[in-house]
Design goal:
By secondary structure, this protein is α+β, with helices and mostly antiparallel strands. The chain is built from 32 helices and 29 strands. Helix 10 (about 270-300) runs parallel beside helix 25 (about 700-740) and helix 11 runs antiparallel to helix 25 (about 700-740). The longest helix is centred in the C-terminal third of the chain and has 42 residues, at about 700-740. The two termini are about 65 Å apart.
């Protein structure tokens, strides 16, 4: 029965081409409809696979057919990571050392016949478990929801148009368009390709990219040699292509592997490791103190059960059991706040690193600028032509120009439209592809040149995909009995490859002097902040002719990408926060200078720009060159390898480095950086998966906001850890000192547990949910190796513990000798003094230098709520008969309450005076 159930469920999940309805498949040679044909699709021709899947490659599936297939085969996703069930979260509450100690305390109470105390400890266990369960449940669900915010998309051809859809909507038979930087989201059979390469290391372990082409391969070829296939989870590193989906979801090769591999448990994050180390030290020290107290109490004649119970209570009291829960909630809430500010953090450990970021290496396009490209200038042999305007018109010397009547202008626009991988549909309302290429399509549309119509007249037969090394792209089109090559790329390589220039009367030779003039014009355009491309063409007799030789130069085009308005303020915020901003771009130096001035990165019009050609490998840099590189803020024409060197240079100097990127070539740099930041809108899927953080709006200001949130989260965690430890240390000191001198215990074991439950959780949780100090971005970044609790913090915690101890013991002595209270009534006063002192102590957690009345603590509404709740609970411990009996508390008279109020305020007053007058350690 189990096997049958498993088989049935597996079949329901598997989406294979063999499952497609018989009406949509072609019969195979063995008599079974489509079975032979659809096995081993890499060994069949692309046409045969497309026919078997009943899809036309030039049209794709219809929306209706895609919906039918998705309904039948389900979404294209791997088996989801199982959600933590309510029972698992509840069970995990009982796995902590704290609960174990409480269980021992309850067992000891029952063993000695103290039934009331035993049940009281059981209630504490249940309350502690309930609070931990509820808060962790909220945090876990918050984290699970956070990771649903990112959606992977795929370019797919449906109803004859290329559009982006969520990857999980892919179905067998979909026609997918891929290009360098894409993550493959299903198993695909290639139909067309141009210089296509893929990184299949996730499946094969092969570190080098492998070439891909549509030609069939042997049916028994191993996975690493199936060059006609692209597999889910791999990455396209170069080129472009079109492919048909043959398998989705768990039926893919990646799905097969994931079904066989057991889930590995995630390792602890750096912050969790720090908290664990802190917890282990506390446990060790506390157990030693507890044993000493128990031994001393028994030696001085105190009740055996009382001392054992006290020792256990001390062990519980000193360990901040609320620490992991509050830390989880603080992190989850902080990540949620980041997500609301368009920063999606992929890794929990990135939060604390964000707060220590000292250098941000940012690219230009789309991060400092709007990535809203518009063609504004064409510089042709006849002169400069202004483009755009309200109606998208073209003007030469102020006079309107008809592109259809101007052969060179028409050739320029036609070349930009043909040498293009972007798509426009629904008029110009929607577009897919690179913003630069979209701008060329829009400009062509304004001139009456639509790519769909041009391609019908001059079909594209070949594409030379953009190559980062060559810095050019070419497409080849049928042109009468010959072939027309359309080229676009960076001005320098295009001009180097050109031997002629296009004029109104046709091509003529291009002289070296003219070539130099065109390069100067390129610099002039770039100095205006324009993105500059060169266009060229030629006609050849052989479709296989080399595309980048003997070109006919057409002219230059300038595209405007205006700076984002909010970047200047963000750069200034970084400067105040001690964060260096470094522009690293593949664009020209003059363009980098223009944008740097516009966004406030540099006020010097002649600011030094380090050109990629002048950058040496790290091992060849002299000390002087190394220092100059560290001081430079503008880098242009930088290669991916040079980005890695720049990151390592700053890391060697002790900086925490954030690096932005959007392309597949940026993935190594994103991995190398301490914080890799990918663009969510224009970034490739490879870049997004390599990054620690994804900007959903591609804005530089979002990075700064994320750093601010990261600093606030870390400071919140540090603040509530200080608060918890100072409260817990005070309990240990109070009881330990009383036990050592042989006097009455100022607080009883169950009272300790009550205080720990009340003051550990609610005020600490409130501190963890704060918005952070107002001037948190006015400070320099902290060092990466700075511990959560520094030596200064530790000394401050101990000194606060001393102040607490003095106030509590003084209250008990005064109650006995001044007010003449009985020992039981004096213990009640000392218990209430400690309870309220710990509660008021939350206001000592404000930042030094902040106002006593207006600071990050008093502005935190959660703190006031926690104070009100805890006050009610403490009063309930006094006046609720059943609870008072369990805790052995006696309601004080007015004089007793005055004593409690006065002595409980002593730690608060000492802390505030210390902050006001800078009294040493208590300034923390």
């Amino acid at each position: 029965m189990i096997w049958k159930t498993f088989t049935k469920r597996s079949r329901a999940r598997v989406t294979d081409v063999a499952d497609i309805p018989l009406a949509t498949r072609r019969a195979g040679d063995d008599g079974s409809p489509g079975q032979t044909l659809l096995n081993q699709p890499w060994s069949k021709t692309a046409e045969a696979v497309a026919a078997a899947l009943a899809v036309r490659v030039d049209e794709g599936l219809t929306g209706e057919e895609a919906a039918v297939r998705k309904t039948r085969y389900g979404p294209n996703r791997l088996r989801a990571h199982p959600r933590r069930s309510l029972w698992r979260i509840l069970f995990d509450q009982g796995k902590s050392l704290i609960v174990g100690l409480l269980v021992v305390a309850a067992a000891v109470a029952f063993l000695f016949g103290e039934v009331l105390e035993g049940w009281a400890v059981v209630v504490v266990i249940l309350l502690n478990t309930a609070i931990g369960f509820f808060t962790e449940w909220r945090a876990v669900r918050s984290m699970e929801a956070l990771f649903t915010l990112g959606t992977v998309t795929t370019r797919v051809r449906r109803d004859g148009q290329v559009r982006k859809i969520p990857a999980e909507d892919l179905v067998p038979g979909d026609v997918v368009v891929v290009e360098g930087g894409d993550v493959v989201t299903a198993d695909l059979r290639l139909v067309e390709s141009s210089k296509l390469q893929a990184d299949e290391s996730t499946l094969t372990g092969e570190s080098l990219p492998v070439g891909k082409h549509p030609a069939p391969v042997a049916g028994q070829a191993p996975l690493a040699e199936r060059s006609s296939m692209l597999y889910k989870g791999t990455a396209v590193t170069r080129g472009s292509g079109t492919a048909v989906v043959v398998k989705t979801g768990m039926a893919t090769e990646l799905g097969t592997i994931s079904a066989l591999v057991a889930e590995a448990e995630e390792g602890a994050t750096p912050l969790e490791q720090r908290l664990n180390r802190l917890g282990r030290r506390l446990i060790g020290g506390t157990l030693a103190v507890a044993f000493l107290v128990v031994f001393t109490g028994i030696f001085t004649g105190k009740d055996l059960f009382l001392m054992i119970e006290t020792g256990l209570a001390l062990a519980v009291a000193a360990i901040p059991e609320g620490l992991p829960v509050v830390a989880t909630i603080a992190l989850a809430r902080g990540l949620r706040r980041m997500a609301r500010r368009n920063a999606l953090v992929n890794r929990l450990s990135s939060v604390e690193t964000l707060g220590a970021t000292g250098v941000i290496c940012t690219d230009k396009t789309g991060t400092l600028t709007e990535n809203r490209m518009t063609l504004t200038r064409l510089v042709l042999e006849a002169g400069p032509i202004e483009a755009g305007g309200a109606d998208g018109d073209f003007r030469l010397n102020g006079t309107p120009v008809d592109p259809q009547a101007h052969p060179v202008l028409r050739a320029a626009l036609e070349t930009g439209v043909l040498c293009n991988n972007a798509s426009l549909y629904e008029g110009e309302a929607q577009a897919t592809g690179d913003p630069l290429e979209v701008a060329l399509l829009v400009a062509g549309t304004h001139a009456g040149l639509r790519r769909e119509e041009l391609v019908k007249k001059r079909p594209e037969v070949r594409e030379e995909a953009f190559d980062a090394d060559v810095k050019m792209m070419a497409t080849v089109h049928a042109y009468d009995d010959q072939w027309r090559v359309a080229v676009k790329g960076a001005p320098e390589p295009v001009l180097d490859a050109a031997t002629a220039i296009l004029t109104d009367i046709g091509p003529r030779p291009l002289s070296e002097e003219e070539r130099a003039q065109w390069l100067r014009r390129n610099e002039q355009l770039a100095a205006e902040g324009l993105r500059v491309l060169a266009l060229a063409t030629k006609t050849v007799a052989d479709v296989r002719a080399a595309p980048y030789v003997d070109l006919v130069f057409i002219g230059l085009i300038g595209l405007m990408d205006p700076p984002r308005q909010e970047v200047r303020a963000a750069v200034e915020a970084c400067r105040r926060a001690g964060i260096e901003v470094v522009m690293v771009t593949g664009d020209q130096p003059v363009t980098a200078q223009g944008i740097a001035r516009a966004v406030g990165l540099s006020s010097d019009p002649e600011a030094a720009v380090v050109h990629g050609s002048a950058m040496k490998p790290l091992d060849r840099l002299s000390d002087e060159e190394r220092a100059r590189m560290l001081q430079a803020r503008l880098f242009a024409r930088v290669s991916p390898k040079q980005k890695l060197d720049l990151i390592e240079l700053h890391q060697q100097a002790g900086h925490i480095v954030a690096m932005t990127g959007d392309g597949v070539n940026d993935a190594p740099a994103l991995k190398k950086a301490d914080i890799g930041v990918a663009m969510g809108q224009r970034g490739t899927q490879v870049a997004r998966e390599a990054a620690d953080m994804v900007l959903q709006d591609d804005a530089f200001s979002t990075i700064v906001a994320a750093v601010e949130e990261g600093r606030a989260i870390f400071e919140n965690i540090r603040t509530f850890v200080r608060y918890l430890l100072s409260c817990n240390v005070s309990e240990v000191m109070v009881v330990g000192l009383a036990a050592l001198v042989g006097t009455t215990l100022p607080i009883l074991p169950l009272q300790i547990l009550f205080l720990n439950l009340v003051t550990d959780v609610f005020p600490a949780l409130a501190l963890g949910l704060g918005a952070g100090a107002a001037g948190i971005m006015e400070r320099p970044p902290r060092q990466a190796n700075e511990p959560l609790i520094t030596r200064r913090h530790g000394l401050g915690i101990v000194l606060y513990g001393v102040v607490f101890t003095a106030a509590v013991l003084a209250a008990m002595v005064l109650a006995r000798q001044w007010l003449g209270r009985s020992p039981a009534e004096a213990v009640t006063i000392s218990f209430l003094t400690l309870a309220f002192a710990q509660l008021w102590h939350v206001f000592n957690m404000r930042e030094p230098g902040t106002s006593l009345w207006r600071n990050e603590i008093t502005r935190n509404g959660y703190v006031w709520g926690a104070v009100a709740l805890c006050t009610a609970l403490i009063l309930g411990a006094v006046y609720v008969p059943g609870l008072a009996a369990v805790l052995q508390v006696h309601p004080p008279d007015p004089a007793g309450w005055i004593l409690v109020a006065g002595m409980s305020l002593v730690p608060l007053l000492v802390g505030q005076l210390g902050k006001r007058f800078g009294a040493g350690i208590l300034v923390i």
